[in-house]
Design goal:
This protein is mainly α. Helices cover about 75% and strands about 0% of the residues.
Length: about 200
């Protein structure tokens, strides 16, 4: 029990690609679940108890959660890249980590061909930005919030306000993630591991 408490409050620092995959996957899953569920629950209000049990609603909701997870994980890998900025080209191994995050589970029903477009989009983001400049987390969060809103299974008539609420929620989550990176990453060990030839 004491070991579990220690692991919860004092987790090991992230020093390897598998550890980075687990870290990003867990953080992205939590933020995606929280943002999509709270948004849907608040939008549905008192109708929620009935609608959240509807099979068709949950089918659409699952698509929203998966797409949110992929987008948020890409944002987190992008922030990790900025944190590690080492003068080395870490783009290929970080893209592999992202592919491993998405490949950890079987392809969801709405994506039988997998996540190739998401990997290509992250590669394009890497190519269009310098890892030496601070990331614009607010712009990133609001863009992902708009994506989530576009996939949401329920919306009200206040579309602009809803997109702003989701954008703020994702931005807050990304800021929290980014603030924890220097403490959670064993930067030197992780850079060395990422720089090692793939086996």
């Amino acid at each position: 029990m004491l070991q579990r408490l220690k692991n919860r409050f004092f987790p090991d620092r992230v020093a390897t690609q598998p550890a980075l995959r687990r870290f990003v996957s867990g953080e992205a899953s939590y933020l995606a679940q929280r943002a999509t569920y709270e948004f849907s629950r608040n939008t549905l209000a008192w109708h929620g108890q009935h609608v959240l049990g509807d099979a068709k609603f949950n089918e659409i909701f699952a698509v929203c959660r998966w797409e949110s997870f992929a987008a948020i994980a890409a944002d987190m890998i992008f922030l990790t890249r900025a944190c590690l900025a080492s003068g080395r080209n870490l783009d290929p191994p970080l893209l592999r980590v992202y592919a491993d995050v998405l490949g950890e589970y079987p392809n969801p029903a709405h994506r039988p061909e997998g996540w190739g477009d998401c990997r290509a989009a992250l590669l394009a983001r890497f190519g269009a930005s310098s890892n030496e400049r601070p990331a614009d987390i607010k712009a990133m969060g609001y863009k992902t919030g708009a994506l989530i809103h576009g996939k949401a299974p329920v919306r009200s008539k206040n579309l602009e306000e809803e997109r702003a609420v989701l954008g703020a929620a994702v931005t807050f989550g990304l800021i929290s993630f980014n603030d924890r990176l220097p403490r959670r990453l064993d930067r030197d060990a992780l850079v060395q591991d990422l720089s090692s030839p793939a086996t």
